[in-house]
Amino acid sequence: MTMEFATRxxxxxxxxxxxxxxxxxxxxxxxxxxxFGDLFTVYAGGEQTENTFNFFTCEGAKGDLxxxxxxxxxxxxxxxxxxxxxLFVEDTAGEQYEKLLTPGDFGFVPKNCPHAYRIExxxxxxxxxxxxxxxxxxxxxxxxxxPTEELGLPRHPVVPEPxxxxxxxxxxxxRFLPGHQWRTGS
Length: 186
Fold this sequence. Notes:
Protein name: Cupin type-2 domain-containing protein
Domain Cupin type-2: 61-119
Strand content: 25-35%
Number of strands: 12
Largest sheet: 7 strands, antiparallel
Number of helices: 4
Organism: Streptosporangium fragile
């Protein structure tokens, strides 16, 4: 049995809005949003974990590098379950790293470190977890992108209007870095 809940973000969700309530979600049935060419599915977020962590997946086709950004108060992990994802990270001293991650590979991004990724193979999937004193940012996906009931990738990329990029730092622990250059070569 799967229960549906109304939340402040959606009229229908399988994720309860209050903490301390056990729940189960079938594959793909979390809160979904399209952003760029990707499908993000949130399974647990700030409301359920008292803002200690979130858990989400990102599925996508081979595409462009997502915009460089950082999370001033949040640590983020990338665990690849399908396909291949190239992760770009810059540490707080300015040294840049680049790594092609394939199924079973793990990438860690400390708080305040610029990062970006590029999906290198169609059908790739990232399992993401973010945690830290900055809270969680999972509702960023549906606020910058577009909430969806669809289970698949967007038919057309969902590219936010430029002014929307300026609204997210106040509400989520995401700071975009326009003009950031990756010197790693790929």
